[in-house]
């Protein structure tokens, strides 16, 4: 995967925006990270996962971004520089693209500390033409699927609860009805 590196001063660097498992498990080396958001997208548990959190018979549900003019999605942007760039992109290409079916896009990221100004970031999005894209369902239906699925990386409910935990800890002011309604429905099933 050849990507134009964003060159700043004498060092080259690239920002990568995470909004799902990448917010709590980037698993690549980076120079620094910032909590913030991208505009024009909603985060939805509408993508299927038949590797990490599900299998071919029972695909799990993971998040993707859907275009939504009035919405914004909070997450974490990671800056990778020099040797970190190739290593992180190679790793994410396997984790996100090959195994996850995500494609890449460049988006504008706004850090929570607005004085720092917005920046261009790479993001991985699963689009509706993806073979394992599952699409919309009610929070109860999504929760019921998450509650029973597991894959090579672990239980699907862990993926849900860690994302909800991140939002509470790092973005307590953000209302995410989609995420928290699914979390509440899934917890009601397993507790
Ligand atoms: N692209 C989103 C979602 C990434 C994501 O959750 N991808 C799945 C692949 S289907 C993953 O890496 N799962 C690892 C895990 O479940 O621990 C992000 O930026 O966080």
TrEMBL record:
What job does the chain carry out? Catalyzes the cleavage of glutathione into 5-oxo-L-proline and a Cys-Gly dipeptide. Acts specifically on glutathione, but not on other gamma-glutamyl peptides. Glutathione depletion is an important factor for apoptosis initiation and execution. Acts as a pro-apoptotic component of the unfolded protein response pathway by mediating the pro-apoptotic effects of the ATF4-ATF3-DDIT3/CHOP cascade.
Concerning InterPro entries, the annotation shows: ChaC, GGCT-like, GGCT-like_sf
At the highest ranks, the source species' classification is: Eukaryota, Metazoa, Chordata, Craniata, Vertebrata
Entries under PANTHER family matching the protein: CATION TRANSPORT PROTEIN CHAC-RELATED, GLUTATHIONE-SPECIFIC GAMMA-GLUTAMYLCYCLOTRANSFERASE 1
Which species is this UniProt entry from? Answer: Salvelinus namaycush (Lake trout)
Molecular function (GO) terms for this protein are: gamma-glutamylcyclotransferase activity; glutathione specific gamma-glutamylcyclotransferase activity
User: What family does the Swiss-Prot or TrEMBL record give for this protein?
Assistant: Belongs to the gamma-glutamylcyclotransferase family. ChaC subfamily.
Q: What is its EC number?
A: 4.3.2.7
Q: Which domain of life does the UniProt lineage start with?
A: Eukaryota
Gene3D superfamilies recorded? Gamma-glutamyl cyclotransferase-like
Localization, UniProt:
Cytoplasm, Cytosol; Golgi apparatus, trans-Golgi network
Residues passing through the membrane, by range: none
**Identification of the protein by name:** Gamma-glutamylcyclotransferase
Q: Which gene encodes it?
A: LOC120023828
Recite the UniProt keywords alphabetically: Apoptosis, Cytoplasm, Golgi apparatus, Lyase, Neurogenesis, Notch signaling pathway, Unfolded protein response
Main localization (coarse): cytoplasm
Enumerate the Gene Ontology biological process terms: apoptotic process; glutathione catabolic process; nervous system development; Notch signaling pathway; response to unfolded protein
**Reactions this protein catalyses:** glutathione = L-cysteinylglycine + 5-oxo-L-proline
Cellular component annotations (GO), alphabetically ordered: cytosol; Golgi apparatus
């Amino acid at each position: 995967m050849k990507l134009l590196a964003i060159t700043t001063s004498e060092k080259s660097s690239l920002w990568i925006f995470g909004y799902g498992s990448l917010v709590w498990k980037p698993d690549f080396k980076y120079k620094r990270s910032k909590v913030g958001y991208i505009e024009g997208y909603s985060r939805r548990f509408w993508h299927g996962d038949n590797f990490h959190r599900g299998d071919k018979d029972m695909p799990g549900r993971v998040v993707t971004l859907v275009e939504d003019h009035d919405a914004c999605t909070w997450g974490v942007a990671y800056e990778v520089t020099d040797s970190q760039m190739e290593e992180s992109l190679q790793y994410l290409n396997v984790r996100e693209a090959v195994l996850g079916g995500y494609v890449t896009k460049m988006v504008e990221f706004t850090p929570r500390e607005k004085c720092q100004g917005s920046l261009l970031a790479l993001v991985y999005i699963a689009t509706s033409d993806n073979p394992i894209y599952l699409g919309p369902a009610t929070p109860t239906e999504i929760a019921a699927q998450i509650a029973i699925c597991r894959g090579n990386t672990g239980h699907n409910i862990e993926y849900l609860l860690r994302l909800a935990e991140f939002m509470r800890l790092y973005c307590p002011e953000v209302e995410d009805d989609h995420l928290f309604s699914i979390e509440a429905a899934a917890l009601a099933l397993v507790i």
